[in-house]
Every structure is written in structure tokens, then in C-alpha cells.
Amino acid sequence: MNQLTPHDAWLKLHEGNERFVSGSSQHPNQDSAHRESLVEGQNPFAVIFGCSDSRLAAEIIFDLGLGDAFVVRTAGQVIDLAVLGSIEYSISVLGVPLIVILGHDNCGAVTATKDAVESGEMPKGYLRNLVERITPSVLASQRDGGQGVNDFMVEHIKQTAARLVETSRSVADAVERKEVAVVGLAYRLEEGRAELVSSLGQL
């Protein structure tokens, strides 16, 4: 089980991202000896639930290595039952102290939702499911004055973090016990920085 506090885990993640931004990544825990040490088990310090976008590789942008992060990804970081089960596993079995909701600017799933809201035409196939789940975030952002995809993306990160705590009793209880914190991060593709946009629990 992880001995880091939510605050310690957040600092470690933030410091890794700053190294990535500055071009001084250390690429830790990627050698053969560390790989072999993980055969019998893992002890990640964060679970990162992020968008599937190919430009958003969590281990790279936070300068992490093998065993550091438990990563869950869907397009537009949309929550479903498998995501909830994966996150609950990370905190209840692995003892992860930090849950990260990771979105990014120019998100294709959020753009598709924006287009659907503005045109009134829903996409076909399972893409419709993604759009339906992101639509409340777009509408909430518009109500508060948001006008573009990146405004909608930030609101979606906040809404996703809040929904996770509201939906999962395991997560809510861990946050209440101050064992786990949930942070929302907005990643900027051009500069590589992950900006804190929401925080639930004691950080």
C-alpha cells in the first residue's frame, strides 16, 4: 500500500510535469532492474483518468516510469462502469492516494459535443454516447459564459471530478477520510503544462 499523502502525491506529479515542460525529464523507473522489481506487485502513487488522445500520454507528460501511475483512459475522459471499477480498484486494493482527472485543450470529443449542441444533430454510432455524456458540461459552461472548446473542456474536467465523487461511494468515503484527494488538470498541448483547475478533498 502507498505511504504517500494526497499532498505528497500531488507534489510528485507536479514536479514531474515541470521537468517535462522545461525539457529536463529524468525518465525515472524505466530500467531493467526496476522492471524486475515490479513482477510481484505494484505500488502506484496516483490513478490518472485521462482522455485517450495520443498527445496525452500520462507517463511522459508527468515524467513517470513503470509502476508509478495507474492509468485509465477514454475519449473525452468519459466515465462508465469500467472506469468506476478501475478507479475503485486503484484506491481500495492498491491504496492510491491521488485521483487525477486529466483533460486537454482542443479535445476532439468535446469539439464533437460542441458541434452537436450548436447544430442539434447528434453523431451516429457509439460516438453519440460520448457526446451525450459530455453535453451537460458544455451546457453548464455556456450558462456560465463559456464560449469555446477549451472553456467547455475545463468545465468538463470539473464536472467529471464532481460526478466521480457523487457516483462512487468508495471514492467519496476515501475523500471524506482524507485518504484520497481528487484533482482536475487541464493539459495545454503547446506548452506541455498540466494546470490545476479543481480539487476535491484535502490536498
UniProtKB/TrEMBL annotation:
UniProt record, GO biological process: carbon utilization
Alphabetic keyword roster: Lyase, Metal-binding, Zinc
Instruction: Read off the Pfam families from this record.
Output: Pro_CA
Task: Outline what the protein does.
Answer: Catalyzes the reversible hydration of carbon dioxide to form bicarbonate.
Cofactor names from the entry are: Zn(2+)
Q: How is the cofactor bound?
A: Binds 1 zinc ion per subunit.
- Give the taxonomic lineage as stored in the record: Bacteria, Bacillati, Actinomycetota, Actinomycetes, Micrococcales
One GO MF annotation is: zinc ion binding
E.C. numbers = 4.2.1.1
Q: Where does Zn(2+) bind?
A: C51, D53, H104, C107
Protein name per its UniProtKB record: carbonic anhydrase
Name the chemical reaction catalysed here: hydrogencarbonate + H(+) = CO2 + H2O
Family statement drawn from the similarity comment of this UniProt entry: Belongs to the beta-class carbonic anhydrase family.
